[in-house]
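Shipment paperwork, digital attachment
Item: protein structure file
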Amino acid sequence: MDFPELAARTRRFSHGAPRAVTVADDGSRVVFLRSGGPEDPTEALWALDVATGEERLIADPAALLGGDDPAVLSPGERALRERQRLNTGGIGSYALDAAGRMAVFPLAGRLFRADLVHGDVVEVHTVGPVLDPRPDPTGERLAYVTDAAEGVRRGELRVIEPDGADNLLAGEDSGVTWGLAEHVAAEEFHRFRGYWWAPDGRSVLAARVDESRLPRWYLHDPTDPASPPASVAYPRAGGPNAEVSLHLLDLDGGWVDVHWDRETYPYLASVTWADGGPLITVLRRSQQHGLVLAVDPRTGETQVHAELADPRWVEPIPGTPAHLPDGRVLVGGELAHDGYDARCLFADGTLLTPPSLYVRRVVGRLPTGGGPADLLVEASEGEPSQRHLFRVRTTIGGGVDTRRMSGTPGWHTAAVGGDVLVVGTATLDDPGTTWSVWRGDGEVARLRSLAATPPYAPRPTLVRVTDRRLPTGVLYPTDHVKGTRLPVLLDVYGGPGHQEVVAARAAWLERQWWAEQGFAVVTIDNRGTAGVAPSFEKAIHRRMADVILADQIDALTALADKHPDLDLDRVAVRGRSFGGWLAGLAVLRHPELFRCGIAGAPITDWSLYDTAYTERYLGMPDDGIDVYAHHSLVELAAEPVVATEQARPLLLVHGMADDNVLAAHTLRLSAALLSTGRPHAVLPLTGATHLAAGGVSERLLRLELDFLRRHL
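Attachment content:
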C-alpha cells in the first residue's frame, strides 16, 4: 500500500493513537480516547490506573450503540440504531467531574455516563439530541445543550437532576442559543464552550447568543439535488456580529445578568470558573484593547483585574486568566519595552516568566511538597521549532524562577493532575506522539499507541535564514544524488498563529511523499506565524500580503544559496485555506518565479471572511477598503494580462459543502480568472469540508501531482 492510500485509511496515521488526555485531580487515573487500530476511526474511552499501570476500556461505542435488545425495539428503532452504529465516529469528546471519577460523553446524539472507578456505563435519557454534556463538579447533575425542535437550532440548555428529571434551564426561539459558543468564539478565540458550572454545582454561568442580525448564506448540497439549501448565519468582515451576553442561572430559577460594557467590548474571549470566582476576558472589536474581569456571582457586577493593550492586536495566552492559590490573578501578556520582546505571565502585575521564554499555554499546577503550587507551562526558548515544558514558581517575592522539564528536542505537550504528569512527546526521530505517565521523578507507564507506522522517516533540514531569521525546512527524495537539480515545491500555510516548521515527524510525512515524487520540498514560516516573538507575529498588521509573500520569496532565495540543487526556474507553490490564498497570491503577483500553483479552499476575498479574524489583521473594511482590495485574489485576477508569462496556471480545490470558507470564494475567483484569460482548473470536492479540501485523499493527491508534473 502506497502513502496516499495508507494516509487516507489511517487519517494521517492518527487512528489508534491516544488523544484528549486528561488526569484525575487526585492523580489516580489517566483518561483518554483511542480507536481500536490503525484503520479504525471509532474512538473509545479508556482509563489507565496509575497505581498499576494497567489500561482499561471504559466505553466501547459499538457495544453501546448495539446493546439494545432487538426484541424490544420497533423496526424503525432498530433501523435508527443501526444507522447510528454505522455512522458514528465514536466518542469525539468527554467531560469529567472535578474528582475525575465520572465521565460523560455524547454518542450519536445520545448521552452516556461512565463510572471511571467501577467501569459501569449507562445511557441517560434526554429530551433531544445532545451537545457538549458536562457534569457539575460534584458529579451529581449533568448539563447539556440540545436541539429540542426538529430541524431548528434552538440551543436549549438543560440540567438532569440525580433523580433523572430533565429540566430546561434556558432556551428561546430560533436565532438565539444558550450554552454554545458562537462562530467567532470557537474559530478565532478558541473558546469552544458556552456554559460553566459553579464549583458547588448549584448554578451555571451561561452565554446567550443572538444571531438574528447576522446575514445568512444558503448552501446547497450537490450530492443531493432534492435537499433544500442549508441556511448558515455567518459574520462577514465589517458586518454585524452575534450578540453575546453572560448570565448566572441558579438551578432553583434565579437569574443574574453579568454586567460589562458590551457595546465597547463585544467579544467574550474566555471564561473560567474555579475557586476564587468567575474570570472573563472581553475585547474591543478592533482587539487592540481588552479587560480581564472578575465576576461577582451574587450580583453579576464585574471588577477590572487587568488591561490588555496593543496598537495592533492583543493575544491572550491559553490557560489564562486564572486564580492562583494565594488569590492573585494570573494573566498572560507581552513584554515590549527596554529591549524585551516576549510573551510572558504576570500575577497581579508581577512578572513570573523570563523575557527569554515564549509562553504558549498554561497547562495547570504542579505540587511543590508544601509551598504554593508551581505552574506547568508549554513554551519555547530560543528555538521556535521546539516546544518544551517548564515549571514556573509563583512564590510571592521569589522573583522569576523557571526550570525546563523536558529534555528531548521536539514538540511537547502535557496534562497534569495531583502529583501525576502525563507528557506527550513528538520528535523528528520517532513516529507519532509518545505519551508517558510520571509520578514524581519516575515514569510509571506509557499509553499504548495502535497507530500505523508511516512508510517514511523524513529528516528535514531545519535552518533559519535572512536577517529576519525565518524558520525553514527542506526535504529531498531519499535517493537524491547531490548535484542533481530538482524542481521546487513550496508547501505553504503562512497564516497568523500557526507554525509549519516544527521538530515533529508528523508535520513532514506528506511532504516527504511529495519529495519522493521528484521534488525538493520547501516550507517557510514567515513573519506573522507563532513561536518567535510578538513583534515577529505582528509585523503583518494591515499588510499581510506584502510582508508574508516577501518573506517567502526572500527565504526561498536564501535557501537556494545554501542548497544549490534547488532549481528556482521550476518552482510550484501549494497551500490550503490561508495557504491557498498565499499560493494564489504568489502565482498572480510573481509569475516570474512561480510557474504554477495549487490553491486549496482559498480565501479569495477577505471582505467575505469572518469578522474577528479578518478585522484583527486588516482592520475594518470601512477604514481601509484599499487594504482589502490589495489583499483580494479576485481583484488581482481581474487585472489584464499583458504578457504570456504572467498567465501561470492555477488549480483551485474546494469542498462544496464547506461551511467555513464558503464555496463562493472559489467560484468568484474562477470567474475573475476566466475574464482575463488566465489558465486554471477547478476541482470541486462534493460533500467535502474545508479541511478535506486540503487534506490527505488518495485521489486528490494524485490529481495534484499530475497537475504539477504537467506544468513543471
